[in-house]
Amino acid sequence: MEGPLTGCRVVELAHIMAGPVCGLMLADMGADVIKVEKPTGDDTRRSLPPDIEGESAAFMMMNRNKRGVVLDLKTEDGKDALRRLLMKADIVIENYRRGTMEKLGLGYETLRKDNPGLILVEISGFGRTGPYADRAGFDLIAQGMSGLMSITGEGPGRPPTKVGAPLSDITAGILGALGAVSAYVNRLKTGVGQRVDTSLFEAGITHTYWQSAIAFATGVSPTSMGSAHPLNAPYQAFETAEGWINIGAANQKNWEKLTDLIGAPELAEDPRFVTNAGRMDNRPDLVAALTPVFKQRTAAEWLAIFEEGGLPAGPVLSITDMHKDPQTQARDMVVEVDHPVAGAVKSLGLPIKFSETPGKVTKAAPLLGQHTEEVLRELGLSDDAIRTMAENGSAIFTGTG
Questions:
Q1: What predicted TM-score, i.e. pTM, was given to this entire model?
Q2: What amino acid positions are annotated as catalytic residues?
């Protein structure tokens, strides 16, 4: 069986993370994603350490399942090859500064004259319109400006904290992939392509749904609350005799179930904690009452009790522990591919499961220029033309860069 996007050709003119996340999502779902790199390669190739046999672990994670081509777009031969490639593309992903494609003579309005069904996905720091359209964007900057850093951290008065993962980068890539697939569905119905525009800034904003709802209703900006929830309690991490656990008693039924399972039914009858509104108003007192109870047993002991009792709860795992977790394994979220230099390399799997057209991770990230010759031949270039491009440096093939 083939993935749901089998037959769709994607050209990825993107580097670092947001654009490559978009590309890997489409590649994992079966699209033929051709990653076009500059002669020095995607900057993530130099994100070292860590490396495996000299190959960047970061690059291999973000670029599995793709074919790799290297073109020097400062040369006419390089630009001509890219133009040929774009004419045969269904979807193009780019995260250049605004106007870069136009300077190359490859702007969307130019391309769509010969490829009216082309879908251009533009992922930038702040979007292609608005007063910040020309600003460079990075995940850290987006997390700060989107409000995320004001609601992340230990609590009021503490230094601003970013989410540990590059959340706006990854989310922008996922939004780009969603936009690409949506535009592709429309094109299958109408034959017409379109531009898809999203940004790190907007990706960060989408994670503030609850806090924005509170701010719209009250006129007050919520602040950081550690692991606690802005609307429900108790819904946070608690320290045990050994390790930390997350408790999800986010509704009245689960709150009453929690007090029963921990042997503290009196807390359910405490006037301060009878309703969720009361628990939120008196959250410091609630945490103070629960913490000594949780410290009476280990995380493993509590989780066994909660599992049997049907209360939502879970451990706080390290990344390596998460990789080993049986649910992670059962859902194929850790996969292994063979890399020509690094050997067997582990990667994260596709988080979307399809019953009829399952996506899969089958190829390791490409070496620099690994598929340049293969793709140029698919574009109809002759042996002489390919040899000329190798000699004048307008294209790089594996082993020549």
A1: 0.94
A2: 169
